[in-house]
Amino acid sequence: MLPATQTKDRKLLACPFMSTVFQLVQSDNGVSNGTALWLSGQCLSAFLAHSGVIKQGMRVIELGSGIGLTALCLANMGCNVIASDLPSVISTCLARNIESNISQLSSGAGNIVVRELDWTVSPEHWFWDHETIIASPTCAPPAEQQPPYPFDLIVSADTIYSLELITPFLRTLHALCMVSMTAPPLSRRSAVAFICLERRDPLVVDRTLELAQSVWGFTVGRVASRKVSKALGKSVTWHKEEWEDVEVWKFTL
Predict the structure, then answer these.
(1) 4-252 belongs to which CATH class?
(2) Which of 125-134, 176-185, 243-252 has the lowest mean pLDDT?
């Protein structure tokens, strides 16, 4: 598989993962960043596959699933996954890619569903028992609904790129971690989050990491480059220069 930087002009991508090949459509039309494959999504999938983090049956939610590569990879490894994004991304490529590739998942695969999750919607207005929505600015949840269920893992790739989205993103991440801490049984730990990014704008990245700690109470730590390199070496044959700006960060409460 080529790095995403070399495949922006392709409408259909063949993405090998372990013993399967996902066929994913993308659209690099300039309307939304989320409708095309990004390098950090490829790197996150490779890292998770060889990190020892993933356990069979884990409950995982992905923020900004894009064309669905990471979500499909996680489901293929036995996780039960919520792939979330905005309606424009879901309708353009995400829903189609998930539906058309479910048959390619291994026999021990977990479940995977697609949900709208708009980070600008405050967590008190989220749904937890809606078939298609977790957070939407056009829909209000009912007065009574099922309690949220906890997550073991939160993942996100190439979602730290805008100063305006830092607070909505961190608020969403924090709320999902708190859901996991407060859902029965109350002895549960916070979900662990792995965020993969390209340091294209150091100001945005550094500000995000600063606010994550000072305002939202996260402990953040960068995954060592050698660990990322080792994982990538088991999945792809790229030169280091093609991914050296990619970083993987671990967030915990």
Answers:
(1) alpha beta
(2) 176-185
pTM of the model: 0.94
Domain ranges of the chain: 4-252
Q: How far apart are CA 123 and CA 173, in angstroms?
A: 10
Sheet holding 80-85, edge to edge: 133-135, 112-117, 80-85, 59-63, 153-157, 192-198, 246-252, 219-222
Residue 187 has pLDDT above 60, yes or no: no
Please give the full DSSP string across 141-177, using - where no structure is assigned. --SS-PPP---SEEEEES----GGGHHHHHHHHHHHH
Residue 32 has what pLDDT? 60
**C-alpha to C-alpha distances, 95 to 89, 131, 206, nearest whole angstrom:** 8, 13, 33
CA distance 9 to 233: 25
